[in-house]
Amino acid sequence: MFGMIPLVVSDMPSDYARYRPTANAGNGTIAAVQGASVEYHDMTTAHITDHSSATPARGGRGGSGGRSRRATGIALARLAAVARWTLAVAACLWIALCVAVGPLYWADSSIADFGAVNWLFAVVGFLVPFAAVVAMTRWANGIPVFGWSSGKNGLHPRRLIPAGARRAAARLLASAPGSWVSRTGRFLARVCVRATDRWWKIALILFIGWLWVPTTLLSAFGADIRSQAREFSWAWNQWTGLDQPYIGFFSFVPMDIYPTAHYIWPSNPTYLTDQHNIVLTVLYGAVLSVSRYFTDSNDVGFVVLSSAQFLFAAFCCAATANRFFNLPWLPRRAGIDFTHPERGLMALVMLDFTHPERGYASPGFAARACAGNGRLPEGASGWFSRLVIILFFLCCPLAVFSTISLTKSPLFAFSFVWAFGVWYELFRTWRGKGDKVVRLRRRSLIALILACVVMLASAKYAWYIIVLQLILALLSDHRRWKAYVVALLLPVIVLHGGVVMLTRTGAIISGDPIESHGVQLQQIARIAKRNPGSIPQSAREEIAPIFNLDQMADAYQPQDADPVKSSGIQSKKVSYRWRSVTQEDMARFNSAWWQIVKADPVTAIDALLAKCFGYFNPMDQPYVSMDYYVNSDYVTDQTTWIKYWCSEWRQSIAEGAKQFGEIPVLGWVAHGNLYVMMTLLIGAAEVVLRRWRTLVMHLPLLLLMGVMITAPANNFERHMLPVAFVFGFVVLTFWRESQRARRNADIR
Fold first, then answer.
1. Residue 308 above 70 pLDDT?
2. Membrane-spanning regions, if any (predicted)?
3. Alpha-carbon span 293 to 299, nearest angstrom
4. Under a CB-based contact definition with an 8 Å cutoff, are residues 272 and 266 in contact?
């Protein structure tokens, strides 16, 4: 009887699903309405829509018209499914390509030498990701990944572990030692949940777990912060009346290090640039100047800045983990305490009406059972997800070293994590057209504003991500437009607009546009080195005022575009004519590049892939890993007293992290490209599953992958930090949405 009831359960994100009886149904039952479908939405609202009158009569025009419309709908649905799977296959093919070309570029070869070994890598590199996408979509739809062992829709799904082994494990758990292990496990699970049921508890765990980093390593940095300090010092000297060189053939100022083309410099001397983001340059430079004033050294300033970033990192990760673990926007009465039913409604739902023997279940059972007293809302995370995510932040070198690394990207990554938690709250509190709007909590609104401010202050590409998120939010959730305008648009207008205004008034110097042409520079340089005879004379004439092709060829490195654009101190190859190039010369750059690429497309493709394949190939070792900043020459040689502080410990920690990352397969978890690849596959599965609102929250991660491809270097680990840090939360979101879909499928 129940199997004949047409039930449709909404798949929109819900805070807590209440399967309440209708007015005509008894307690604990679901109303059955003849010829009607019942749609269960959030906020305990059941909408009943009568479809009995919508069924066309058999025969006649109504029947044929209905059949035609149904056929058209089926055809369109199939085309849409093909399109979704095409996107998923494209993602897997991209990963397969990056995996296949790895051996070629490790040997400094070319795709022209693509052979049997590369085809083997390509096949495996496609089948494994595609199988992962298929497995995720099957599981999310409530279909056993390996099928049923007793026929379609049978009682027992096919499993990897043999039935005999499972029965033996069950007997072991039923024995006295097994019972003790079970009780101990439940106790530890309760401890895990209780220890992470408030944001301050999570922050305390991270603070204590990370405390050894700022106390023994003190700080970590590379060349960027020294350039920022140099910029501020030159600007301060100018403000205090000191005469300094500016534009001249024999002068060499901070802007010549990056370098920034002289045609961009204003006529009135200024020494502040937006190369490393002006806000951070002023902040870091000011702190280091104060440190030099009082201690005659930058070292105290480095330690202060790293310690502040350490505290900020602990706060951001704790705030976001709390939002994902504990759903704090929900009232505590949303929780269920099975020992005290009066504290909340029992929301048990039969898993399958056609198979009552499968029993009942309730969302968030694991977390509430571990909490024990209704402290957590329904849908809160269980102990396993909490443990894995906390362990990632405490143990993964990506997160550990980022807490004190003063290299812009970690600061952006932690602020992105903070904003990601608020975006998840917005996603979970979305309501349909017929439901009341749930306003964003004031503390969450303030958090999103501050997170966006820090993102904009730490990375120049942050405004692209925020604007994309703003557009997607207004399209999908326009009823809360005021919150999005205040939290997303205003920071962009104030910070990014302020930087543009300062640049146009000549107060600061903007970054050189050549910075965004990394892929093109690598293609030109590789062709100039590997096949210079293919470059047309017209292209040589157009690019001659901008670049010296011979110097480009000498400076070319497959994984890094910085040498090609003459980054570095005075002793460098001058391939980029930054002193003499003009804006009119730069206008012809794209034309020259296109002629060169057309002349040798194979080498051009080599240059592109060699510069970005490592971001999507977990077997590729990072070009620059996060342990580099811990033990760089700027720390161990060019500091006053930091280099003597636990120097052997610093060396052993950096080398130990590097050696662990070099372990095949096991070491992949220490590098960002594994998390980038898996995030891309989860996004492909979400496309197949039509989780459009979830994709709205996750699309900025795809944009970050685009930033990686256009970045100056291949497999530069700090560019992958935002994706790696939120990967655990992406998996948790996918699991929750899949659990909801599986329950809905069981009810249907």
1. yes
2. 85-107, 119-140, 204-225, 300-325, 383-404, 410-427, 448-475, 481-502, 695-713, 719-735
3. 12
4. no
User: In 433-588, which ranges are continuous DSSP H helix?
Assistant: 442-458, 462-476, 481-484, 490-491, 497-504, 518-530, 537-543, 549-555, 583-586
- Residues 418, 419, 422, 423, CA torsion sign: negative
Q: How many other CB atoms are found less than 10 A from the CB of residue 61?
A: 9
- Which of 547-555's residues contact partners 24+ apart within 8 Å by CB, and which partners? 547/575, 547/576, 547/577, 548/574, 548/575, 548/577, 549/524, 551/575, 552/521, 552/524, 552/525, 552/528, 553/525, 553/528, 553/529, 554/529, 555/525
Instruction: Find, among 186, 634, 631, the residue nearest to 367 by Cα.
Output: 186
Q: What is the CA radius of gyration of the chain?
A: 29
Q: 707-724 as b/e, with b when 16 or more CB fall inside 10 Å?
A: bbbbbbbbbbbbbbbbbb
672 contacts 622 by C-beta, under 8 angstroms:
yes
CA distance linking residue 273 with residue 282, whole number of Å: 10
Pairwise CA distance, residues 446 & 425, whole Å = 13
Of 104, 144, 246, nearest to 614 by C-alpha is 104
Under DSSP, is residue 156 helix (H, G, I), strand (E, B) or coil?
A: coil
- Compute, in degrees rounded to 10, the torsion defined by CA atoms 611, 398, 273, 262: -20
What does pTM read for this prediction?
0.86
Q: How far is CA 587 from CA 543, 544, 548, 576, in A?
A: 10, 13, 17, 15
Mean pLDDT across 700-711: 94
Q: What are 37's strand-pairing partners?
A: 49
Helix axes 163-174, 176-195, angle to 10 degrees: 90
Return the H-helix or E-strand segment holding 361: strand 360-361
Summarize the chain as % helix, strand, coil (round to 5).
65, 5, 30
CB atoms within 10 A of CB 444: 22
Q: How many other C-beta atoms are found inside a 10 Å radius of the C-beta of residue 230? A: 17
pLDDT in tens, 208-257: 999 999 999 999 999 999 999 999 999 999 999 888 888 766 678 888 88
Indicate the SS3 state at residue 349. Answer: strand
* DSSP label of 162: -
295-304 pLDDT per residue, tens: 999 999 999 9
Q: CA-to-CA distance for 159 and 153, rounded, in angstroms?
A: 15
Handedness of CA 329, 330, 332, 337 (dihedral sign): negative
What's the DSSP call for residue 493? I
Contacts of 587 (CB under 8 A, 6+ apart): none
* Total residues found in the chain within this entry: 748
Q: End-to-end distance of the chain based on CA atoms, in angstroms?
A: 13
41-87 pLDDT tens trace = 333 333 333 333 444 444 445 567 778 888 888 989 999 999 999 99
User: Is a pLDDT exceeding 90 seen at residue 455?
Assistant: yes
CB 723 within 8 Å of CB 704: yes
Residue 736: C-alpha distances to residues 162, 192, 487, 624 (Å): 28, 19, 27, 35
The Cα–Cα gap between 598 and 376 comes to 61
DSSP state at residue 637: T
Find, among 358, 365, 351, the residue nearest to 16 by Cα: 365
CB 156 within 8 A of CB 357: no
Closest CA to 536 of 453, 596, 458: 596
